[in-house]
Queue: 3 jobs
Job 1
Amino acid sequence: MGRGIVHRKSDDTRRGSRLWKFEQVHDALKHNKGTDVEGRKLDLNELTADLSWSSDSFSKMTNLRFLQIGVWWSLNGSNVCFPNGLETLPGELKYLEWHRCCLESLSLPTQLVELHMRRSKLKKLWDGDQNLVNLEQIDLSYSKDLIEMPDLSKAEKLKDVYLIGCKSLRQLRVHSKSLLALILQGCSSLQELDLNDCRELESLQELSPPLEWLDLYDCWKLKHLSKLPPSLWNLRLNNCRELESLPELPPSLKKLDLNGCWKLKHLPKLPLSLRNLPLNNCRELKSLPVLPPSLEELHLNDCWKLVHLPKLPLSLRNLPLNNCRELESLPVLPSSLEELHLNDCWKLVHLPMLPPSLRKLSLNNCRELKSIPELPPSFNGLDLNNCWNLKHLPKILPSLGSLYLNTCKELEFLPELPPFLKQLHLICCWKLKHLPKLPPYLGSLHLKNCRELESLPELPPSLKQLHLNDCWKLKHLPMLPPSLCNFHLNNYKELESRPKLPPSFNGLKLNDFWKLKHLPKLPPSLSSLRLYNCTELESLPELPPSLELLDLNHCWKLKHLPKFPPSLLNLRLNNCRELESLPKLPPSFKLLDLNHCWKLKHLPKLPSSLWKVCLNNCRELESLPELLPSLTQLDLTDCWKHKHLPKLPPSLGSLRLYNCRELESLPQLPPSLEQLDLNDCWKLKHLPMLPPFLQNFFLNNCRELKSLSELPPSLWNLRLNNCRELESLPKLPPSLEKLDLNDCWKLKHLPMLPPSLRNFGLNNCRELECLPELPPSLWNLRLINWRELKSLLELPPSLEELDLNDCWKLKHLSMLPPSLRNFRLNNCRELKSLPELPPSLEELDLNDCWKLKHLPMLPPSLRNFRLNNYRELESLPQLPPSLWNLRLNNCRELESLPELPPSLEKLDLNDCWKLQHLPQLPPSLESLRLNNCRELESLLELPPFLEELHFNDCWKLKHLPKLPPSLSNFYLNNCIELESLPELPPSLRELVLNDCWQLKHLPKLPPSLWNLHLNNCRELESLLELPPSL
């Protein structure tokens, strides 16, 4: 019937939209006809001899979408030949089936969806790069001459690949996030198989020799592997998150990469040839098999459940064990070991003897570690951060060049320091009262927040840097050595006197010296002087001749400055409120930065070398002096009394004017200007002609501005905010990449958007009636407060970010583009459903879409998921395995949660009134916040690595489970029924209890606690001993 309809529509059989009779098809191709043809089928079974067609046989078939050529029942039939090759296939072709194709290579159109070329003579499909973004299926089975497949990494929709019996194929690369099936039986020459980023692939058939290389990186859904060929020597399984086990490994295997195999619990026997074994982020791995003797590197970072290690091979050189939180002990370390990394091994209490070859040891955040064995002689650096229980250090070797100790809270003293130590950094060593004798070659000494430190020993003559911050009890300083170049003193409340500054001194920084009124004589070598928050400082001494930088912040009482030396290059004055004038600026001066100098009325003559002037909140300044040709940047902010600008120099590249309320006009803009930023210039009505090289143009709250002049062709960023009288825009330049229009109330129409546009935002343009066609290159679209918008046109395929806010009447969304990564919907009140979410989506933010009752399936790549004020939502779909942040606000009807993914790190539940129970919390969870979950009565076991726990307005919560040892912040607000607390972990730093009415007793407070808030705990009868760190 269909063929009859097509036949009746056309008198000329060669011009019908579909051709299937052999004579019609042959005649059209032979004479290069058929411009109206959309589909053709050619059955070669009717041939008695080979046909020869010209290379341009398809050139006029511009509408052809379906092409089928082949022999379906005879293997010896005649064929179609192209003696001069085939130039091209029609650009609109979507389906191509060509059995026994005689061509050796073929260029495919970008619109192609399915390719079927069984038993072809193809040796390779095409040369170079082809962007086949729509291709979904390939079948080249029994193409025995096929040697090489092209790189299919851009075929992101590819689902099925059939290559049965391609005996000559040696290499295959497919990087498609949509791939579901790959059939390779009989590919007896295949040596390399790369399936990187095939996220939907769940299984792989048994592979055969001579395969040597197998890459399955980012195959997220792959659960099982079949038997591996004995020829395999390289196997990559990074990020195969669902893979639970491995088959027997071939003895030839030399490289095995298993990073990010979250669910892998056990390993098979390892081959003896293996040299490197990366197992980072194998979260379920509890133990290891016997390690091969040739192993040189073993990586076990983030193996959370690993408790013990087997015997380590003698050849091992590098052992990273960072964040193995359950690891309690180590075996004997091999003599060849050079690097050992044990950061965040929370339960590790002791270390074995360190081998003599060890050069590097990292022990950051080993909270239970109490001691360190003797250090080997080759050791040259020690880094200890957050080793809270470490009280003593071993003897430090003479070869040690640097020592860093951060938050070793229990450390009371240091051993003798080695003579060649050059750097000593001590941060938050709260109990440290004294330092040993400092070595003669020490060049840098940093002491921060050493609260009990009362004095310093004699400073060595080699010292060049001395930084002393928040050492509250330090009252006196020793004599500063003559070599000292850089000296920082911050927050020294008890310091009674300042030592004499050495003559070689070149940098001085003083912070929070509230009572300092005068400075001593400054050394002649000083090049940098920074004074912050010296609120009582009234004057400065004579400035030295070498000074290049003068930076004065919050020196409120400073009224006058001394004469500037000729060497001065940069002057920054911030919040010097009483300063009335400046001295003459030196001729070499380059930067002038004046902020909140309220009483400054005039500026001196500007030097010819000046290139940047920033004036912020100089309220009394009425005018500027002449601007010289060297100036490239001029910033004026909150200069309220400024009415006119002087002539702008020809070299000016950037002009920013913020809140210059009295400014009525601008002078001619120089041709070199690249950035023009005009904000809150209320009285500005007209703009001069814009210069030809302008690239960035920002207008904000210029309320009187009614029109814009012609935009320059070089412009690539245009932002118009709160230009309420602006009714139209000029033609947009072809180079424009960013366009933001906010609060342009009277704007009714937009010009055509240029094809270069990548970023487009519309906010509260109340009179705008419709959107112009969106360019295909657009990747960021923001539509905010467009209340009359009811539907969206087709979205461009390249779009990666989509924000729709306050589109009250929007009821439906079209299909979302496959490239979309971030999708935000806020206050779209009439929206009832969402389309299918693209597989590339990583962030989904849905707020105040009141009528949305159901959600589509969440994509596997989703990492951030936020739901706010979904009053009708009763259930959630299955959560994807990659999710690490889940936030649910005001989902009042939600009674339960689905299973939480193993990757989840943050969980926030706010105003979920009917939620009574939580599912099992994943071990990866680091932050849990429960606010106003009124029906929640109890919790299951808390995850072992939780660091932050908040319970607010959980009215029925009576008891808490055991708190994890990693917890550092614990908040309980308005938990009215809570009667007691469990034991507090030793890591706790902050405890806040507000309105816990029934709470009578507190457990013992840990020694690490530094913040304790107790408000309205009405029944609390007593407090135990307060910790010293509070």
Job 2
Amino acid sequence: MNVWFGARIEVLTVDPDNCAPMSSNLHIEFPESLPVSGKRDEIMDAIAAHQVVIVCGETGSGKTTQLPKIALAMGRGKCNYPEGQRGKLIGHTQPRRIAASIVAKRIAEELKTPLGDVVGFKVRFQDRLSKDASVKLMTDGILLAETQTDPLLNAYDTIIIDEAHERSLNIDFLLGYLRQILPRRPDLKIIVTSATIDAQRFADHFASKKGPAPVIMVSGRMFPVEQRFRPFEESREYDLNNAIADGVDELWRDPHNQGDILVFLPGEREIREAADHLRKHLSHNPVLRNAEVLPLFARLSPAEQDRIFDGHTGRRIVLATNVAETSLTVPGTRYVIDAGTARIKRYSFRSKVEQLLVEPISQSSANQRAGRCGRVANGICIRLYDQKDYDGRPRFTDPEILRSSLAGVILRMKSLHLGIVEDFPFLERPTGRAIADGYQLLNELGAVDDANELTPLGQELSRLPLDPRVGRMLLEARSREALDEALVIASALSVQDVRDRPMEAQQQADAAHQKFDDEKSEFTGYLKLWKWIHDARGGSHEGAVGATGTATRGTPGSSSRSSISSPGAPRATAPSGGVAHAASHKLSNRQYEQLLRQNFVNIRRVREWKDIHSQLHTVVAEHKWRLNTKPASYEQLHLSMLSGLLGNIGCKLEEGQNGEYLGARSIKFFAHPGAHLTKKPGKWIVASELVETTRLFGRGIANIDPQWLEQVGGHLLKKQLLDPHWEKKAAEVMALERATLYGIVVYSGRRVNYSRVDLPGAREIFIREALVGKEWETTLPFLAANQKLIRQVEDLEHKARRQDVLVDDELIYAFYDQQLPADVCSGYSFERWYREESKKPQYTVELGGGHRDSTLLRLTREELMRHEAAGITTVSFPKTIRLGGVDCAATYLHEPGDARDGLTVTVPLFVLNQVNDERCEWMVPGMLKEKVQALIKTLHQRPRSRLVPLPETAAKFAEALNAPEKFGAGSLVDAVLKLVREATALDIVRADIKVDMLTPHYFMNFRVVDEHGRQMGQGRNLGALKAELGSQARGAFQALASLKLQQDASPGAGSAMRSAQVKGEPAQRAEDTERNALPNRLQAPANTARAATENVAKPSILDGRFTAWTFGELPELLEIRKGGQTLIGFPALIDASDAVTVEVFDEPEVAATKHRAGLRRLFALQIKDALKYLEKNIPDLQKMAVSYMNVGKADNGSGGGTIEELREQIIAVALDRAFLLDPLPTDEFAFKRRIEEGRGRLTLIANEVARMAAVILLEYAAAARKIKDTKNAPDATTDASQQLQRLIPKKFLQTTPWDRLQHLARYLKAITLRLDKYRADPARDAARLAELRPQEQRYWRLVAERKGVVDDRMAEFRWLLEELRVSFFAQELRTPQPVSVKRLDKAWSQLQS
């Protein structure tokens, strides 16, 4: 926070009563060498005749020193008043303090009077003005501050405004203010002067009845200045520093030119770079190597600044910013090098920050720079730009009022009742945008309301002679018990940082300052520094050390209460340097200053800080504010500071943004790299100022809590209510509130009651969501009754697959809206109204038994339905469907695109494998007509044209198929196909009906659940569900069967086992369990049930391991009753290696396969000795094993067959042929008889199997070798290799049916003969292969569609393909039956029918 308007506070006490006449021996002389001396008579006449005189002249003409003497000579000033009369002063303003003091000293020297006697000065922190002085040098801020205590400036009879061309905010306000008071002060004389001034503008500004103010031009200077333009084009090889070095060489090329050079540069960085470059450049010149190169800018320490003005010998180059452009005269300067640029402070109305951008200077500034030379001898000014560039620049620098915030000006005008700022007589009227920005800042501070009128806080703020931001901080600190600490920080922000950081000792300074740094806040760091400064002096802590070294009256900062206690602000550490500061020892002034220098703390700035703190303390005392007696917390202090800095907050952007902060109004800034913090500042910060140089930086930063913004900036928050919604738990309509401060999101997603903002909107949401949308849980009976009725109507819609039965939500909403009062918008308000309203007689109904019910808000079926839903009955749309012997729950949904659209059946996991695919095609009677019509639509045009109109035909077909004896019997597609053939007299095949073209809702959706009701899988592909969950379903079924058998192992149990025929009855029984629509079911005979009961009464056979048939008769079917429903199981013997067990399966095919393997093991256990002999005496086993090693071998040579696998297959086939021919034994007697029958022929059968295997493997080896040796026949060899792999898998003896096993050798021989013939006629082979491929492709496609399930007809077709190969490629081997492509086509059509 560099400069705030009004932050330079001057507490003035003017006592004009003690005036003494001027000494009669005062002698005023006017040096004739000064041009202004020659104009003094003209100036005196103009002053005598006009209230305002404009004096213009070049730099060095003597205006600054001679005009006060001219006024004295005219009899003005306190010393010229008669004794006893109240005398008045000659006021003389300067833009800078150093200029005021130097000019005062010079005038006093010319008058030969002590400084302060006749001529004195008063600037901030210094007052060298006696009570009898007549001429008062001061800064423009001092004079502006006096307007609060002396509105008409009655203490002055003459006011000289010097250097008016700078057009600072203070000067512009003074000029406007003086113009207003001139009519009320006719005795007051105003002299406005500058070297380069827009004379006409000033003259018009002070125009009176006599016309514009007179302008007196003072031309000429003591020594001429030569202007040299040296433009350069910047590049990598030649930059500004090279141009300056060339200028220095040009000026000092003549050895007689001994004058110093003043170089103007835009900023500190440029000065440092130029200094380094010049030192290197001059070091190569023996004559100039001893020349000094010194910097001059505002942030230099006083010691470094004093070096500039001290006497010196030798040559010197001073590198300065525009601080040396006016008022200051650098001694010995004869030459100037002007870079033509400067950092100009501009306030950005868009980003609301002050920018220090490098800009080309104006012509007046260029002339001022040139005026710095030529005061001691002829001067030369080198401008590093051309004449054309100079001529194209604006004549004057934009006044500060056009590039500053006007908040302080507006507040002061309102406090002085000077009218609105738009009508104030500024020299140059500010833009409307600037005025609006000033009002916006005051609104941010809460000083004005939306009508731009002062608020109570603004009225209190206007009484403080402070910058509005500082005043707002102190007012907030007063209310939050943090005023003591806020005074310290506010005074620190009004001066330059007291911590020095010399260029040659930056690291040492940083180390010394580290003890003052805080973790989260630079504001807290100021308190640590303040406490250290006072504790370092030692002695009594009751008083602080003043600027002169003597103890002043106690101040808030001198107390130990200046430090705050919070996690972010630990107590200040003891001062370094080994100097004790106990109360018993106090450092001398010299020791104290030495300690400060050791810690790189600037003593002058410390005095300045203390003085401002004292002045702020005086302001607080005048308003009788009470200081806090307890240390303020971190929150109290930073809330106070935040109140005046709401436009300077920042929220850190996401990671990866290089530490950038999002500030107010979408600006982005960075924390200043020189921030005095020990840790990163955090996500939310506030900055005391935002300054733009190479980047936009925040200085004086502190971590804040975003919740604090709502406390101090609530009037600025822009709040939005988003997503108003009904909350079921709270039973209220809530909205999510989002608050932003200047575009920064302070909080988002805060839940607020929407009815407080928009009652009608909240009521509408309540009705739509809570009452119509069923999103409210309440005990009120009407809502449950209405929802039940709506669900019933919705069920009718889903079953009928139409959406025009239930009325839409708008009509239901209108029903509630008509009856509810306007203030009912939540669950609480509704229940309160309902309980009172339902007691009225018109809503009461007697139920009998003394019970009553209310009809209030009850809907009726007629009000909910548009029309009756005819045909929707429980027969057409049952609630349960019997699948696998179990009643499965059925639900209906009409939601196209939804996964559950159509009919969904919940299938228990244990019954999944027993669900019949064909039964599921029929769905339910009510959906049959639509599905039949959809199937008919997939036919091609010829049959479809004979069935029009399709809806009527589908209705007839559905009526026929819904007959009890037909519904669910077989495949629906086959049934429809039969009806289509009868109706069209066309030979329609199954492939003509394209089932895959039907939409998903025409297929039953299966939802598989376990015993706990948890969903295991869902889908419309029953085969895929069985493949995925089949093993789990089988395990669940077996667990259920075992459990039931154990529970029913007592007389009279409900489970029953019975024997049945192997082929006919099991399949028929399984099919019967699927038919839930058929009334007639097979019942077990009474005698069978009794026998089963007797068997079940014994211990369960499922728990034993058997090596002989000792478990009685093995039933073929097992009926398991569960919950009044019957499940069918299929018992089977399971091979357990050294024994067999009994398990129950849910699929007859799986049970049959497992039972055959288990029965084989049981037979093997009975003839162990015979098998051992057989294993050792299989003929030619070793020879066969050599060929068998290549069966199933992978390309990398792994996975071939072994001799043990071959022996096992031969014995298994022999056992099957000897003992497992149908019918299989079902009891112990049949089992033993089969052993006796097969034992004698086992060896003969084994030898026959071995002989057959040897022949097959011999042909296999020949075919494999032939495939490998055949070259240049890729299609033929590939096809033959695939055929070989299909014919001879690793377990080919067991997997190939016995009747086909005898033909394998012939098929393999055909492969060899084919490849032998290939070379003679490859075209014939290719042609035959082209005929064969379509036949094979459609077969294997069908196998894939049926997921590997092959029935007898498909198996027959598969071996016909092998016979067709023999007839194509090896006719000499002959086939057992005639075979051709036509015969295969006929077989395929029969397969598809």
Job 3
Amino acid sequence: MHISQFFRIFAATLDTSIYMTSNFFTNENQNTLLEKIEGVFQYKKVHFFDALVGYFRASGYFRIRKFITNTPKIRFLVGINVDKLTYQANQQGLLFNPNAEQSQEEFFSEIKRNIQEAKYDKEVEDGMYQFIEDITTGKIQMRIHPKQNIHAKIYIFREEVYHPHGYGSVITGSSNLTEAGLEKNFEFNVELRYDDDIQFATETFERLWEESVEIDISHIEQIKKESYLNTDFTPYEVYLKFLLEYFGKSIDFDPNSVSDLPKGYKKLSYQIDAVNDGFAKMMKHNGFFLSDVVGLGKTVISALIAKKFFFANGFPMHRSHTLVVVPPAMKESWENTLAEFKLDNYKIITNGSLHKLKDPTLYDLIIVDEAHKFRSDSASMYNELQKLCKTKTLRSDGSLHDKKVILVSATPLNNKPEDIANLVYLFQDSKDSTLEEGNLQRFFREQIDAYRKLKKHKDINYISAEIKTIYSKIRSKVVEPLTVRRTRTDLMENDAYRKDLEEQNVHFPDVKSPQKIYYQLEEDLEKLYDKTIQCLSDTEQGLRYYRYQAIKFLKPNKKSKYKKADMISMQLASIMKILLVKRIDSSFYAFKQSLKRYYEANKVMLDMFANGTIYIAPNLKVNELLSEGREEELIQLIEKAKYSDPTIEICTPDDFEDGFYEGIKQDDVLLKNLVEEWDNVTNDPKLDIFINEYLSQKLFDKSINQEGKLVIFSESKETTQYLSTKLKESGFDRILTVQSDNRTENMPILEQNFDANYKGEKKNDYNIVISTEVLAEGVNLHRANVIVNYDTPWNSTRLMQRIGRVNRIGSTAKEVHIFNFFPTSKVNNDIELEKKAKMKLFAFHAALGEDSQIYSTDENPETFGLFDKNVDEERDEKLRYLMWLRQLKEEQPELIKRISKLPMRARVGRKSKFIPNSTIAFIRNQRRDAFVFVKADGTTEDLTFLEAAKEFEARLEEKSIPLHDKHHEQIAVALNLFANKEEGAKLILQKVNPAQGPNEKKAIAYLDGFLNIPELTENERELITKAKQAITTGKFQQLQRDVNRLKTATKKTPIKPVILLEQLIKIISAYPLEHILKGTIAPIAEQRIIKEFTPEIIISESFNV
């Protein structure tokens, strides 16, 4: 064979092999650019390595660094974004004229951003450190091309001396020198080995290299210093960065953010902070709690926020409407305040008038005063308010907007977990929250279950510890992000607030710890007292309250008429028991009256049995009538309504189960005995010590009561009337008694005699006011500074409300004094006196049960915060850090400016013998902040801000130490923990909810059944679909219940589908469903979610010995 023929055959063979093994590769099936580069360096002695790329990443360089260790000549030519620079120049009215300095700036800005966004990984960091070292030592040469966008990607490999047997190769295609381009992205690259290709690529590279700009090596060192790779950060600098990042814009105090105050109002710094903080929370979460303690001006702050919102919410094209929902007693006060502040477009309605609103879409902002009154989601008033708050605002241009809600209330933490949840659900969807806990329903279910289990425990210390744990979770996860709250302690302990108040001559009295008034019971009276408490509360030997459980004991044919008969009966019995227990605490007089009424009502029931006719009347507001002691009125109403009210049942004795009549008789025996024994009690030790010792000697002493004014509270109207009569008989004749039926007519007199802010002529016609709870809200009584709680305010919110009447802005007294009564035994020393009083307090606690278990986490449940707690000692620890940071900014502005420029991910090593080999990371996304403590063994713990702040806190002189070997691994653990939690929340936002409760499933399944009805119109189908969506996200608490009630009501009685559909549409049409979006999440929203959930490492610290 001729040799030329041999070479043609050989060439053909090579051509054929091209189709068998392509030179193209796409990063798929492990055939990546990184592997190709590794192969070239492995099989060739590469002397020259040139790379021309549009984008360069230090992390990408790290991936190839190990292959080029022995390569003497390495050059990188990088393009810059000319289009971007041209656009920026044009925006400024300039022509883009590329120059070396601008090119360098653009390049290094990109490198710095790349370092900050690179994977937080030890290997990646080592590569970036190596890149910086290689640049500064001259290991690699790098230039920037300033004149044109470089889109080409060429990698040229050559041996030192040319030879015709494959001395090099060229890889070209779409991959930049980035980690993604090397092995992750789908790319299209090809390797060329022909000499002509290598020569052409090299010549082109050389030409561009000559046109390019050398980088300034000093910039590289600066990048290291300005990025998180800097190892010189101190613990003190990282601590300041932690605080600056956490508090954000709150650090900047702007006194001009609140302006245009009415005449007579002072611009107080704590109120300005509250306005700005509240406004920010409202705009982020659609609502918030305004819970500054009573007397700090919540009405004023609300008015200022409403005014700020008016001008920020589309003004002047849109003029916002504000609706204020208030208790009747507060309406006049709000009218005066909003008129003074000249707020436009507002309407004030009372709690019971929500159903009268004609156009819920009109209002942009809803302000709810005394919002804790809406804490029960089973009340119709709550349902009306929730529907109002969840109805979108319709503007004149046709656009829809979420309403904003301000809940003005005492601290939400004074309520039970389910009550707190219900208040939050007024502006948050229970399963689609803007908070860290995306599924609030699941979160609160865990806390509610834990709270209820505690009732079974007897150990008071265990109960106290567990309750604090429950409320700590609720506080950090829900209440704190949604609450603006300052106490007087906060104002006094923070220099900036205190100085501002002093300069403006605003003073708050010092609230002294409650003083105890012990009234001692003689031996016989004490025995009767203890026997009575036992009888009222002992479910075995005591009263069983059968009188109020009639429907529970009906036979099935009659009982089936009443839904939840057993539960209703138990509630009524409990109400009566609590009423009697509270009455004996209030006054013996009031207790005797209530006891006699119950005895007479019980006899009425026995008489009805004797006469053979028993009336059942569940729709006559029995609870209300009983709690107000109006049993006789109840009987009269039954007589009037028995022919018109279908729920009234006329029964015979045979309609009741065995045991009911016997129970009524047994209660009658106990009641008769108690009535007779109490009729023999003629002395009143509580009244005696009050008049003879306290009123006559202590309460009007000038050392504590300079104005000579006194406020007396009691829950019982009968007690206030009794006190008024007895005090007047004892010579105290300047007494004003205020209760629900005379409040309106007495308000002018009250203001003239007790309101320090009264603008007219102040009078002294009255020096004692005796009142029920009607004066515990919305009234100024601060010419007085002494309060007597004649009976115990078991609810801590109520106690704070009472104290707030005299502890207000404008008070002239230096101190507020509170006196509480406690029954005790006749003993000889103070220690026994207190011991016996506590024992009686425990007996009350047991008797009241659920009603007395509403206390804040800061209260001691042994004494309900009444016995030994300073009522105003609560403080906001976060505020201490914020105010300190503000002060530091004022004193050292340059320091704060420098710290604010520190990069994200700044980290530091610190010495600690207590938590060696551990790490704390501050991680954030757009939804939440997290502080994760990773221990040496890899276990984790979520920290609160305060817990994290205490760990990050550092002194100026503290030196750093190197990060320990587990640092990066522990940061990865923290990030994974954060990501896993966010994944669950992401599913909620994407409307994928695998954890529906049984009632939700039942309601949704029932609604699905209607979608198959042939007669269904498109509008009805859409409405049902939206109802399903509303149930899935937990928008309305009552919706699923209403749907399930319809299902239950029609289960036994078949109804035609068309009629049933009509009933369903009527039910769901009562809810504002028309603005609910249907279907799956949109692509834009999907992108929003990805961005919203992407975690960012803010700062971290690792500890070692």
